[in-house]
Amino acid sequence: MPRAGGPLRWNPSLHKLRYGRIAYVNVAPIETAFDNGAVVRDVEVLDAVPTQLNLAMSEGRIDAGAISAAHYLAHRDDFVRIADLCIAADGPVRTVLFVCPTPPALLGEATIAVTAHSASGRALLAALLGGIHGVHPRYEVVDDALAAARAGQPALVIGDDALVARAELPRSQIHDLGEAWRAWTGLPFVFAVWAVRRAALAAYPAEVAALTDALVAARDWGEANREAVIDAAVAVKPYHRALYEDYFSRLAYHLDERAARGLERFATLLVPERARVSR
User: Fold this and answer.
1) What is the model's pLDDT at position 276?
2) Interval 84-137: pLDDT, tens
3) Which phi and psi angles does 139 have, rounded to 5°?
4) Distance (Å, rounded) from C-alpha 183 to C-alpha 191?
5) I need a surface site. Which of 166, 184, 243, 271 has the fewest CB within 10 A?
6) CA 251 to CA 84: how far, in whole Å?
């Protein structure tokens, strides 16, 4: 935890780690501590959507940060998880939604609009549709999945756009993928993990250890200062406070034993994608 007299700091090093930060409000319970100076880290920060961070980690353009669970599982030889940091939900998650005007079991080979921003979300949707309903639709990557959903096309809507979709679109058309996973498996679903490239860990162990300590301290601070976290979220996306109070209460940032089991269950379902994906 940060010292009583000021923010947590560490000694400067010769190498400044390059850190990837998810550009969604779901990281506020960890990142707010850094934003307001309660915890300090000496890193270069790249803000991007999950798939961009996945690629940046694999290409070595960042050293550590939050990446999609699906990408981590597909490249475990390249990455090491940072402590037990994750984003998980044991039931409804609110920000990973399948919006569908027809019952999912009747989709057949229909085309689903998906964002290019989420790897775990699309893999989860494919696993649920195939495993529960026995359907294997096509997926079309679009620039604006929320607009597609508004136009009546089946769509995967994630992140901050999902909060808008939940408020605007008919409740009967909205399927929360966290809730569907929990009903199917009885386990939490892990959407993202914090990880470091193995090469960076080998080259800069002290810096990675310092970053790990800072991230854990930031998570602890976020848990102890939930009102400040909600204030930060409202400042970024000015929705009603009650929405964020409900949203953050549904997310977990510790990879506990049940969440770890959910992550491994997801790993067994990550087969080469059967559905055709077009742009």
Assistant:
1) 41
2) 999 999 999 988 999 999 999 889 888 999 988 877 888 999 999 999 989 989
3) -125, 130
4) 16
5) 271
6) 14
The predicted pLDDT at position 3 comes to 36
- Report residue 44's pLDDT band, with 50, 70 and 90 as the boundaries: very high
Give the dihedral of Cα atoms 207, 208, 213, 214; nearest 10 deg. Answer: 70
Rounded Cα distance between 173 and 166, Å, is 10
**Site of tokens 């999950």:** 50
Distance, in Å, from the CA atom of 169 to the CA atom of 152, rounded to the nearest integer, reads 10
Alpha-carbon dihedral 68, 69, 70, 73, rounded to 10 degrees: 130
Contacts of 257 (CB under 8 A, 6+ apart): none
CATH 3.40.190.10 correct for 96-188+269-278: yes
Fold equal for 18-88+189-264 and 96-188+269-278 = yes
Are the C-beta atoms of residues 212 and 83 closer than 8 Å to each other? Answer: yes
Task: Report whether 194 contacts 65 (CB < 8 A).
Answer: yes
User: Tokens 């079991």 sit at which residue?
Assistant: 105
**CATH, range 18-88+189-264:** 3.40.190.10
Residue 216 is encoded by which pair of tokens? 């854990």
Residue 165 has which token pair?
């979709």
Quote the pTM value.
0.86
